[in-house]
Automatic annotation (TrEMBL), chain A:
CDD domains: SQR_TypeB_2_TM
Statement: the UniProt record of this protein carries the keyword NADP: no
InterPro entries reported in the protein's UniProt record: Cytochrome_b-558, SQR/QFR_C/D
Coiled coil (UniProt feature): none
SUPFAM superfamilies in UniProt: Fumarate reductase respiratory complex transmembrane subunits
Transmembrane region(s): 12-33, 53-79, 100-121, 163-183, 204-222
CC annotations in GO: membrane
Keywords assigned: Membrane, Transmembrane, Transmembrane helix
Protein's UniProt name: Succinate dehydrogenase
Gene3D superfamilies reported for this sequence: Fumarate reductase/succinate dehydrogenase, transmembrane subunit (1.20.1300.10)
Gene expressing this chain: sdhC
TrEMBL record, chain B:
Similarity remark: Belongs to the succinate dehydrogenase/fumarate reductase iron-sulfur protein family.
Domain 4Fe-4S ferredoxin-type, chain residue ranges per copy: 151-181
Family annotation (InterPro entries): 2Fe-2S_ferredoxin-like_sf, 2Fe-2S_ferredoxin-type, 2Fe2S_fd_BS, 4Fe4S_Fe-S-bd, Beta-grasp_dom_sf, Helical_ferredxn, SDH/FRD_Iron-Sulfur, Succ_DH/fum_Rdtase_N
Provenance organism: Psychroflexus salis
Molecular-function annotations in GO: 2 iron, 2 sulfur cluster binding; electron transfer activity
Domain named 2Fe-2S ferredoxin-type: residues: 3-103
Pfam families attached to this UniProt entry: Fer2_3, Fer4_8
Name this polypeptide is given: Succinate dehydrogenase
GO-annotated biological processes: aerobic respiration; respiratory electron transport chain
Highest taxon listed in the record's lineage: Bacteria
Cofactors (names): [2Fe-2S] cluster; [3Fe-4S] cluster
């Protein structure tokens, strides 16, 4: 990050890493949604993603780097922004000229970061343990069947608190994306005849994808009452 | 109407400031905000109290001198105006009005409500110009054909009066709207192409050096700008900057 020194370069780096994470989110949702419509497909894709060399050795480290970079750069930018006004206004009517989501990206981002900690603990740490510490790459349970679907469902079945945390976190992610996704195009200089369409698409994406994750969590909870 | 004024008083740049409360009993709706402050200052002078220092000059929305954060918004609650164009009819009898200077480390307070916005001048000096050889063979600017759309966009960018409301409104105290307007007014014209690379790199470098924050695209600057400078200019600045960076 030391090489990205100017304000615009940092913002562009932030936007690019955000767009990368948006792509990952779309791919993640697509795979997760198969757990609702076809458990077998979900198991097969999970096994492929969990054992494919390119995914595990190349894409996964890039993803982790992308997540860390996005959050660290977010804090770097925030520190600079805070230092630009050391005396705050006694009366600040931010709501008069800008949406709440655009002024609270750090807050929504911190919630998403905290959620990622839980999510990694729930799924990623367990997978790393089974695959790379226990050395079991089969993806099978003791009955000889794929374990991914049942393990995923077990995280939500009879777990109302975890489901509530997921719902809350994805609502915050939606708020984060409602500003961040469209904003990244502006930061990269895209402001032309397609901007209106981009804005509509990014807003729709920001609502549909996080709410889709909420639907999946609630579906597995209700389906196993 | 009667008004309660809560005004920031600060002796000089280094002094510790504080809010002081004043009451005005005969404010007319047809007064401009600055005229209301004139009335207050007359009363203060009569009482032997130091009048409130505030920036003003043309009083017709052109010069960009009048600043003031009024009830949490630069230039007050109205849109597309400067403080001198704000009328007291926008307020109600008995209102309390909080008046603060524009807050940004790059705009240090000179006294009371007056701030030093020379950081904008230094950004402009870093590249907000074109170099023209005036030795006698200067080409008439009108002989260069320019698309009407581009000429209009350039003109609109050039209407920025450098008042600093964009910085004051931005939660990050960013100067991107100002800098983007000053870059755009030249970037859109053939006369500005020759120095385009150096211009944008130098102006952004100076903007950062002055200590302004980053743009997070909240759009507050565009809403509060008295001249309606559009966020399109910030996108153009980003494009110009990226292109210039790639050129080196």
């Amino acid at each position: 990050m030391g090489g990205i020194k100017t304000s615009i370069a940092r913002k562009v780096a932030m936007a690019l890493s955000g767009l990368f994470l948006v792509l990952f989110l779309a791919q993640h949702f697509t795979i997760n949604f198969t757990s609702v419509v076809s458990p077998d497909t979900f198991n097969e894709i999970s096994q492929f993603m969990g054992t494919n060399f390119l995914v595990q050795a190349v894409l996964q480290p890039i993803l982790i780097f992308g997540v860390i970079f996005h959050f660290v750069m977010g804090f770097v930018l925030e520190i600079k922004n805070n230092s630009a006004r050391s005396v705050s206004y006694a009366k600040y009517n931010g709501g008069a000229n800008s949406p709440w989501v655009s002024r609270n990206m750090l807050l929504t981002g911190i919630v998403v970061l905290a959620f990622l900690g839980l999510h990694f603990y729930d799924f990623w740490v367990h997978e790393m343990q089974v695959k790379y510490i226990q050395g079991d790459m089969s993806g099978l349970n003791e009955a000889g069947e794929f374990r991914y679907y049942e393990e995923t469902v077990a995280k939500f079945a009879g777990q109302p608190v975890r489901v509530a945390i997921y719902v809350f976190s994805f609502v915050l992610l939606m708020l984060h994306l409602l500003h961040g996704f469209a904003s990244s195009f502006q930061t990269m200089g895209v402001n032309n005849k397609y901007s209106k369409g981009i804005k509509v698409f990014t807003k729709a994406f920001a609502i549909v994808i996080p709410m889709g994750f909420v639907f999946i969590a609630i579906f597995h909870y209700l389906n196993n009452l | 109407m009667k008004l309660n004024l809560k005004i920031w008083r600060q002796e000089d740049a280094k002094a510790k400031g504080e809010f002081k409360n004043y009451q005005l009993n005969e404010v007319h709706g047809d007064m401009s905000f600055l005229e209301m402050l004139d009335v207050l200052n007359n009363e203060l002078v009569e009482k032997g109290i130091e009048p409130v220092e505030f920036d003003h000059d043309c009083r017709e929305g052109i010069c960009g001198m009048c600043s003031l954060q009024i009830n949490g918004e630069p230039h007050g609650p109205d849109r597309g105006i400067t403080t001198c164009q704000l009328h007291m009819r926008k307020f109600k009898d008995g209102d309390t009005i909080v008046i603060e200077p524009f807050r940004a480390n790059a705009f240090p307070i000179v006294k009371d409500l007056a701030v030093d916005r020379s950081a904008f001048d230094r950004i402009q000096q870093a590249g907000g110009y074109i170099s023209v050889n005036t030795s006698g063979n200067t080409q008439d600017a009108n002989s260069i054909p320019i698309e009407k759309d581009k000429a209009d966009m350039s003109f609109n960018a050039a209407t920025c009066i450098g008042c600093g409301a964009c910085v004051a409104a931005c939660k990050n105290a960013s100067a991107m709207l100002f800098t983007s307007a000053k870059v755009s007014q030249y970037a859109l014209l053939p006369q500005g192409e020759v120095e385009a690379t150096d211009r944008v790199l130098n102006m952004v470098a100076q903007m950062d050096k002055e200590g302004f924050g980053n743009c997070t695209n909240t759009g507050a600057c565009e809403i509060e700008c008295p001249k309606g400078i559009s966020l399109e200019n910030i996108a153009r600045l980003n494009r110009e900057y990226l292109a210039a960076s790639l050129k080196g």
